[in-house]
Amino acid sequence: MSSFYLHVVRTFKPGLFPASDLKTELESRDYPGFVTVAPNTPNPNGGFTSIGTRIFDTSDTLEKYDDELMNDIDQNRAKLSLELASQCVSQKGYIFQVIEEFENNTEITPKYLVRVFMRAKHGRQSEVIDLLKNGRKNMDGNKPAISVLRNGSSGIVRLTHAHDSMNSVEESFSRADSMMKSDLGIKLIDATQNAYRQMSRILFTHKMS
Predict the structure, then answer these.
(1) Of 19, 65, 134, 191, whose CB count within 10 A is highest?
(2) ∠ CA(16), CA(112), CA(181), 5° rounding?
């Protein structure tokens, strides 16, 4: 069975960023996860964007978590989430199913995450996934995760790479630029409508081992 990521993406009002409350919310449940933060450049009306991530090894575990949320509506943990929502200009939830897990990143302490979101042309999502898998095989060292969005917009494929320094991030940009000029990159461009890159800083982790 596949593993899943549940993301709560919050764009806070300008001047607000309740980091301690995000940490409390993350640690209030017995599931692994982490919180990242990124400047919200696409939305001029917002401030920082946080991405709270929960990791589930199976769909059954995700369902168990969902059941707990429903049972906690009147509890303090639910109230904290509502308080966080009141400080946002936007709050959305996304579920991604993992196609390929991170590999060979045990030797680093991740500090940054670079996520690339690609929208496949209609009927070509599987082709995009296969192209990313082939490109991933040729990578040395730390390999990114590949996942697909299971709610919201269709055809979204995401590549996520963990980095331990800004220098590593810069090197990955150079590799990506070179790859897009290759035969594989040209095929990837043809199979997708557009792509969006997001770079974020890891703030907190919980039960990650």
Answers:
(1) 191
(2) 120
pTM for the model stands at 0.91
How far apart, in whole angstroms, are the C-alpha atoms of residue 110 and residue 200? Answer: 11
Q: What is the DSSP letter of 112?
A: E
Work out whether strand 192-206 and strand 156-163 pair parallel, antiparallel, or are unpaired: unpaired
Convert the pLDDT of each residue in 51-96 to its tens digit.
999 999 999 999 999 998 888 766 666 788 889 999 999 999 999 9
Are 97 and 148 within 8 A, CB to CB? yes
Residue 187, Cα to own-chain centre: how many angstroms?
A: 24
Residue positions counted in the chain: 209
Give start and end residues of each alpha helix (H) in the chain: 19-27, 59-71, 76-85, 125-137, 166-179, 183-191
Chain CA centroid to CA 77, Å = 23
Cα 206 → chain centroid: 16
CB of 23 within 8 A of CB of 37? Answer: no
Tokens representing 144? 């990114």
- What tokens does 114 get? 């670079």
Please provide the distance, in angstroms rounded to a whole number, between the alpha carbons at the two ends of the chain. 20
